[in-house]
Write a sequence for this structure.
DNA sequence: TAGATTGTTAATCGATTAACAATC
DNA sequence: TAGATTGTTAATCGATTAACAATC
């Protein structure tokens, strides 16, 4: 099971989708076998590409029967690093922060939300998801004690630089930024700017194109 | 200003990012001019590609000075269809639905949230964002009266098929699905499955790879 | 003018697809 | 065996980058 055989970003995204698709499928139908076409068709892609991806991470298929889900899933978990547990905190206990704090879907990816932080003193102590909201002053200690390596930034746009700085000072190395302002960070820090509106904007754009013919 | 000169998906995404970047920039600095490198550098891409994209949508630059933001923004708006107003409803008045209902960032993309719907009778009448929560029975009429063409599905996984069916019956043509179950829809209906966990999973994966060397 | 930037062609690079032999 | 599916090489396709002339 080779790791890191030059995985590019597009391939990682595809592996995630296979993983997501197969774990859903496993819950419903009896799991067992999938063919490359069985994976490819529902996500509107070519089956050759699925076979290539799976070969690249060292999963073997069986001619005439396909792949065994029970072999594919752990292989993807291993390659994508879902077996190494990662911990994340939420900074910004607003509506979106609350929604993410209560979200159940992170666990299968090896991610745990360990704390929620907010600058407003009157929010401290309230419950959000499984966590009690804590003041920002508690962040650094919490992050080091719980070995937190990711922060989810759900603060207003104007507060995001400050929140990011606090997270970085606390030793956090990856930021998931939901504020509608792109974040520039020092070398070595990972950032993902989420731009939530873009998802809907793309749909809207697609509609407009369709109308235009 | 030519429209639809074979715009592919990747290019649309890039145009969205330029638009997003330039409208933010316009608020802060004095707008005026941007060079292709000024756009490309912050988003870690090649400046030739920016020039190509802008040329493709019919925007001209000025040697030695760059492009005028005031010309670029409307051109992108026009090509991406942000000038044709689109209306969306939210189905599922939970935490995520509430966060999106209150989100201010859709307007610049020509998108308005006109209503929030939920299956639970006791939620009807509550305020969420600018809207009063309505029962599902009111959806079809609302959609036709307000010419709604998009639905944001923030219902639990088990309810998403039903919510999608209701939206489609109401004449809605595009679905933005946040339930962690991929949605299959009839020909002619647009769907975007959002898979919120994947964003964080990608960060986590990137961290794991970095640790592995 | 010198210099910076655009615009565009040509070259490269990589990802996707097609084809088909190998396998069970 | 016949048939379905994988595995893999070769061909294609398209997107990105490099190079450089045109422009102000």
């Amino acid at each position: 099971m080779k790791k890191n055989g030059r995985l590019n970003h597009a391939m990682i995204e595809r592996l995630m989708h296979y993983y997501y698709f197969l774990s859903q499928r496993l819950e419903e139908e009896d799991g067992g076998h999938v063919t490359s076409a069985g994976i490819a068709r529902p996500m509107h892609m070519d089956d050759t590409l699925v076979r290539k991806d799976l070969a690249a991470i060292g999963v073997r298929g069986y001619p005439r029967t396909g792949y065994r889900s029970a072999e594919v899933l752990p292989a993807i978990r291993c390659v994508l690093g879902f077996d190494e547990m990662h911990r994340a905190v939420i900074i910004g206990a607003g509506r979106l922060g609350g929604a993410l704090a209560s979200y159940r879907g992170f666990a299968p990816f090896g991610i745990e939300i360990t704390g929620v932080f907010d600058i407003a003193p009157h929010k401290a102590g309230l419950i959000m998801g499984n966590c009690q909201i804590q003041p920002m002053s508690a962040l650094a200690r919490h992050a080091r004690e719980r070995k937190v390596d990711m922060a989810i930034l759900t603060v207003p746009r104007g507060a995001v630089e400050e929140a990011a700085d606090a997270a970085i000072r606390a030793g956090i190395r990856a930021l998931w930024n939901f504020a509608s302002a792109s974040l520039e960070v020092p070398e070595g820090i990972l950032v993902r700017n989420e731009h939530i509106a873009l998802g809907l904007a793309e749909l809207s754009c697609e509609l407009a194109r369709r109308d235009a013919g």
Residues 8, 10, 45-46, 48-49, 52, 62-65 of chain B lie near DNA strand D (CB under 10 Å from a C1').
